[in-house]
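Mods, move this if it's the wrong board.
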Amino acid sequence: MLGLKDMTVEIYAGLDARDRMLFKAGITTDNPHEILVHTCNMLELDYADVLSRKRDKALVTARMIAIGLTCKCNIYTLKEIGKFYNRDHTTIIYNRDTFNDLVEIKDRYFTSKLNKVMISE
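Not the wrong board. C-alpha cells:
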C-alpha cells in the first residue's frame, strides 16, 4: 500500500471521505476487526483487553476510537457494530456521539490518542 506521501493528488481526490479517513489511518479495509487491530497496534494495547469490559481510561478511549471509526464507515448497522464489540446498540450510539463530541471540542487526551491512530507513518 502506498504511503500518504506517495499518493498522487488525483488518486486521493478520487476517494470518498470515508476512504480518505481510513487511508490516512493506514487502514486498508472497513472491517471492524481490522479497525480494532490497527487501533490496538497504534496505541500499544491488547486486543482482548480493549474488547473486554475493563474500564481503564486507555482501554475505554481505544474502544471509543475504534467504534467511532467503524461508525464512520457507514456500512454497518449499530446492531452489527454492537455485536462485534459485544455491546448493546445504545452503547454504540453513546460511543459514536461521544467520539464526535470529543473531536469537536478538541479534548487534549482524546485528540492525542486519535492522532496516534490516524497518523500511521
